[in-house]
Amino acid sequence: MHVSGTNKGQALILALIMVSSAIVIVLAITSTTAYNSFVLRKETRRTLAFQLAEAGIDRALWCLNKPAVCGNPYIGETTQLGAGSFSVSVAVVGDNKEVTSVGTTGNVQRTIRVTATDEPATSEASFYYGVQVGEGGLNMDNNAIVKGNVYSNGSITAGNNAEIQGSVIVAGGTALTPDQSQIVQSSEYDVGRTTNETDAAQSFKAGETNVMNKISLYIKKVGSPSNATMHIVTDNAGLPGTTELASGTLNATLVTTTYGWIDITFNTTPPLIKGSTYWIIFDVGSKNASKYWIWGAHDNAGYGNGIGMFSKDWGSDPWQSANADFGFKVFMGGVPTSITGLRVPATAGGFVHANTIQTSNISANVECQIMESTTVAGDVECGSINQGTIAGNVTAENVTNSVISGNLTCETESSNTVSGVKTCPTAVDPPVDAPPENMPISNAQIKQWEIDAEIGGVVTPPGGVGTTYTVPNGTTLGPVKIDGNLFITNSAQVTMNGIIWVKGNLTIDNNADIKLSPSFGSQSSVIIVDDPSYQQTQGKVVINNNGDIQGSGAADSYVMVASTNKGITALTDPAIHIQNNVSGAIFFTSQGMLEISNNAELNEATGYLLQLDNNVEVTYESGLASTSFTSGPGGIWRALDETWEEL
């Protein structure tokens, strides 16, 4: 084909324009890439400098408690650490000490300041129920009695004449493993610290169609932030939507200054659809540079089915990518739970709720989805009732073979005797399962108490680490770590002067007694029984032959004994076994069985699985609703929560 000279010139000009445009685009891309790389490097250095400054604070607090190692008085230091350094200075301000730490990497610096005090640390816990039980459930043998309310995340099975004198709620069961999770953390993200990052969110894709029972977040706190609100919302074109499915409270007292997995339950158990995207919203409310949260995260999309984002205000401000996935777990429900064989006598305001109730005798109002062969003196709302004897009114989807003294409202019924008005068929919505209840103590709190105990000193048994320390009569213990088993026996009287961490097993027997120092007044303290490396076999507690634990003698003072043992392969393998009355203790198992036997009487029991043997009695004391635990009488340096600030 012939091309004229004019056309050749036009083609050349067009080619030059195209080449020039390509060069401009390449330069723009190169410039943008270089700029983004610069910003990323700068942010990485800022994060590292901040972590170095925090390391300096941790080092200073450790040194203030180790004058023999770091010098007395300890005034600070400069230390190289990895790719940077921290410089710490300590100044005396009245009875306290002001600690300033500067973290440096390259030409980037960040500075943190805290006030240290040697006053004892306190933490709050609320025991609202006479008995609270985790997913392992509650077993009550013949004539066992609980005088108080019960909340159980697992089933309740009762023997002859076993009864609960109060309200009883059994939540819908929770799956033992998460449906969705991101558990590998390589970075962290501040929530509620600055205006731009007040709220945060993480999306996830449901792996099955089911109700959602709870979530767990990998978090810690700086200072003492107020409770935060968690929302579960639908997705809107890849961003958090405004349709809320559930909300719950992040209890700040369960979170410490070290990372831990913190459970959050919700006001309802929302149904999720397999393959659909949902969002966890971390709603702080308002920012505070000295009281905020830190959410563990994984850079570069550690979780393939979601993304982390942040916003100034999740209700009104646009979302921005966090370029990370936050640490989370989502647990589904749908696991059947029940009450079997239980007697609930009439009490003021008594109420019973469970998925399934069978062969029970209840003098209270009842909510359930299935009822079989049960007598009820109150009203009933249920899905299906068979062979019920009910004195009050009944609202249910289907009722068969039952005797009802009150009115009946239902969708279908057959072979019933109804004394009142029958309104059938009528559409009925049966009650939904109750949401699970969080345990009053978190694993993060247990870890912090272990740190507090070890700061007070370490006792190695005479036979070496891992052997048994038999405590002489008249000994004062705490705050202290026992690097092995602790044995209190033969009428020994031991005074507890702070948190005790037993890295082994604890036995109290033969009329021995451990009592909290009178100096604690109405405060309480903790005995932690935990070997983090051997929780399957270690961390067990036995109290028998009139062994006892007492508070300070003041009202509302207790000693909480907490076990982390999880060897629940059989009902003969308890984490805590109480075989006689104990006058001033709270017992807690985070992941094992608590067994009470030999007609023992207690004030409160909380555990993953609870076994009440024949004739055992648990009587709730109202002072347990707000219990304050303290690390000891003082003398151990720690950072005051309200004083943390970045300069």
TrEMBL record:
What keywords were assigned to this record? Answer: Membrane, Transmembrane, Transmembrane helix
What is the protein named? Type 4 fimbrial biogenesis protein PilX N-terminal domain-containing protein
Origin organism of this chain?
Answer: Candidatus Kerfeldbacteria bacterium RIFCSPLOWO2_01_FULL_48_11
Highest classification ranks of the organism? Bacteria, Candidatus Kerfeldiibacteriota
* Stored SUPFAM superfamilies: Trimeric LpxA-like enzymes (SSF51161)
- Bilayer-crossing residues are 12-35
